[in-house]
Amino acid sequence: MDFYIIDPAGGQLRLPVNPEEVICPGAKKIETVSIVNIGDIDFPNGDERSGVSFSSFFPAEYDPSYCRYPDIPDPNEAMAMLINWRIKRAPIQLLITHTYVNITALLTRTEYRYVGGETGDIQYEVEFRQWREVKARTTAEMAAVTNDSAGEPRSDLKPVPKTYTVKSGDSLWKIAKLELGNGAKYKELYELNKSTIGPDPSKIFPGQKLVLS
């Protein structure tokens, strides 16, 4: 497992020492509404953006027992990279190999400290928050969309009735059986098409178009 922080604008940091654990919290947004005589009702309202946090240290000297590679970065320079990414607040990529973590994120928090007896080492904690791009249209773009759609006919949202064209040998009972699943529904079928069929439900003719619903 290796940890990479990659800046699309240029620059990359491979952590020299893997964190002991990685925390990836997730939570669902809940909107609570208070209803008289019922009380509080919770409604799910999407998910919060997931985050990743971990802690480790930048060693001053290479030690093969815990360092991932020999050409480790200077601790102060590595910490400066993290701080600059946090200040810039531009999205970066966090990749942890052999895991599901491969996200575009903002580095939202950095904390570091020097510990006595570990001369030159820097211990640090970081938090990342998954980043989602929001695209906003300009006034000109919105006007163009409005003008383009102004001349278009409005969509007819009314459901189109299902119809059946009478064939030779048909009867209302037969049509109700085949199309509605129950021959006994021929009475309903007749009521829907009384103006087309006329006063006698037994007299239907090929070519007549009957409404089924």
Automatic annotation (TrEMBL):
Gene3D superfamilies referenced in this protein's UniProt entry, alphabetically: LysM domain
Entry superkingdom: Bacteria
Stored Pfam families: LysM
InterPro entries: Bact_Kbp, LysM, LysM_dom_sf
Domain LysM: 162-212
Protein name per UniProt: LysM peptidoglycan-binding domain-containing protein
Organism, scientific name: Paenibacillus residui
